[in-house]
């Protein structure tokens, strides 16, 4: 199982994913290091070695990666381009596996979502990793669908959900299927990827907790809360165009959520993994606990928003 990968270093370890991933790696028996920026004062529970380096400092990254079997990037979506230096350093340091920061939609084919800049950048990073295979560096790109808690809790009108105000925007018909994962499912998929090194070598891995639609989420919200939500209708293609225009204007605060929402709910299948997710869930031994049922998740969100 984990004999090939023992020593693991997490880049961006102080972020939302990294801080939860590190304890899970320790619990699974890995020897864990955390790489953070020099200005970061993050601390970690457990026997974790903290390395500090700027993500563009090649020599410092090589030194940090020496003796590591795997590098896991948990950088934010919009910092994906910074991973290239880390990939170069990992290859020189003889790292066996690099897991780039994917953890979202399917970036393996980006032509049909060319209006969105960040899937293209993530795809470029994977292509760069592919160019390093001859040097002995392997990779795994993990696609998880949307983070379901973040999707429902994020109070941005572009995302469609304003649960506290009991307002919902349904895009297109609302019946487009898309895949979502809980954060714990994302974390376990990363850990399991390291435990199945041969099965996950140089490939995209697709996992999910649930397949759902906007209409199904709305029906569940109304059933559990006992409240009717005010519904507004909108179109994902219009939203994508509006997002592109905002990005051109430098209005990233509006543009990025609009593009992300259009990708998730639109007809392009960016978050719809179909049978691939079932295959990989089985391969990696991933299961959904009763505590992580969609009803339980939505009930927790409603409580946080003081709706029930």
How does this structure look, described?
Keywords: NADP, Oxidoreductase. InterPro entries: NAD(P)-bd_dom_sf, NmrA-like, NmrA/Isoflavone_reductase-like, PCBER-like. One of its GO terms (molecular function) is oxidoreductase activity. With 308 residues, the protein is α/β, with parallel strands linked by helices. The chain has two domains: 7-144 and 181-206, Rossmann fold (3-Layer(aba) Sandwich); 147-178 and 210-271 and 287-304, Alpha-Beta Complex (UDP-galactose 4-epimerase, domain 1), CATH 3.90.25. 40% of the residues lie in helices and 18% in strands. The strands form three sheets. Strands 3-2-1-4-5-6-11 form a seven-stranded parallel beta sheet, with helices on both faces. A three-stranded mixed beta sheet has the order 7-10-12. α1 crosses α6 (183-195), α2 crosses α3 and α7 packs across α11. The longest helix has 15 residues, at 117-131. The mean pLDDT is 94.
Secondary structure layout plus pairing:
Layout lengths: L6 E5 L4 H12 L3 E6 L11 E5 L5 H8 L4 E4 L9 H10 L4 E3 L17 H15 L6 E6 L2 E2 H6 L7 E2 L4 E5 L6 E4 L1 H13 L7 E4 L3 E3 L1 H12 L4 E5 L1 H13 L3 H14 L9 H9 L10 H11 L4
Parallel strand pairs: 1-2, 1-4, 2-3, 4-5, 5-6, 6-11, 7-10, 9-13
Antiparallel strand pairs: 8-9, 10-12
Quick summary:
This protein is of the alpha/beta class and 308 residues long.
Spell out the key features of this protein.
308 residues; alpha/beta; Rossmann fold; UDP-galactose 4-epimerase, domain 1; seven-stranded parallel beta sheet; three-stranded mixed beta sheet; globular
